[in-house]
Amino acid sequence: MSNILITGVAGFIGNTLAENLLESGHKVTGIDNGYTGRAENIIKLSAYRNFHYIEYDVTDDSVINHPSLQPIKMIYHLASPASPKWYQAAPFETITVNTLGTKYMLELAKINDAKLLYSSTSEIYGNPNQHPQEESYNGNVNTWGPRACYDESKRLGEVYCYLYHSLYNTKVTVARIFNSYSAGLWKKDGRVMSNFVMQALKGEDITVYGDGKQTRTFCYVEDTIAGLKKMMTNEIANGEIFNIGHPQEYTITEVAELVKSLTHSSSTIVYKDLPVDDPQKRCPDITKAKELLGWQPKISLIEGLKRMISEYRNDL
Questions:
Q1: Is there a catalytic annotation at residue 150?
Q2: What is the location of CATH 3.40.50.720 in the chain?
Q3: Of these residues, 104, 150, 164, 181, which one is catalytic?
Q4: Class of domain 192-215+248-282+301-315
Q5: Phi, then psi, of 114 in degrees rounded to 5
Q6: Which domain of life is it from (predicted)?
Q7: Sign of the alpha-carbon torsion through 245, 314, 36, 32
Q8: What distance in Å separates the CA atoms of residue 102 and residue 79, rounded to the nearest whole number?
Q9: CA within 20 to 30 Å of 22's CA: 48, 127, 133, 187, which one?
Q10: Measured between alpha carbons, how far is 181 from 159 in angstroms, rounded to an integer?
Q11: Cα separation, 208 vs 26, whole angstroms
């Protein structure tokens, strides 16, 4: 049984990961400040006797010496708003959690001789000139725009990881996570999958921003979690960056049409202006994860959407 820390435990991926680890018999300590996390997620996890929750902010430097965090062997640092709706509403807080919050978690890992997994993002590639994107690609990011608070702070978080690994030999691995989804995604989260499914189930207009020709890939959260766990437990991942996402690419219009079809919805697909700096293409090259970790996603978009739609419909 490992003593595992998850920051952002009330959020989508953090909560799903925590439940998975608890079901496997691990002891999990979760930290969240409650900004975008959901209280019902903590209530669900609290049913497990090996779960301990601390309502705390990882940007408070006292977290390094918190008595409940000694000793820790693994740290999944997932804390950060991830939806543009939320990080644009709190840009300075987003920057701080991805920079100082990451530094403090790395310091905690260093003190405890623990391994840290940093949840970076496909957003660090910006509006990419290379397609698909491999880990060696440095990206094409605009520092002067509304998405920069997230993109650039995640990039600086990676720099902190590099410095702690290279200067102090801290065990660290970086996951550049591409779009993940499941019914665990909050219906009011503001991301494309939750928006499309809810709009379709309610018979509302399905809102596509731009001409709908921009592309994305979608990884069911079960597959995302499997990739993160392999990164944490595999020694070959130490000091390495991995793309974690599904390599099957879809246009946004194709996704909207698929959701409409699977929900048997009468909704109309409508088009609105594209937000500033919204990337035109996004698709991971997962060759490195396949070769070094033996990981690749197994759940197709159709299968994942069927599961998500079924659970969303039951909730409604």
A1: yes
A2: 3-181+219-247+284-293
A3: 150
A4: alpha beta
A5: -100, 165
A6: Bacteria
A7: negative
A8: 9
A9: 187
A10: 27
A11: 41
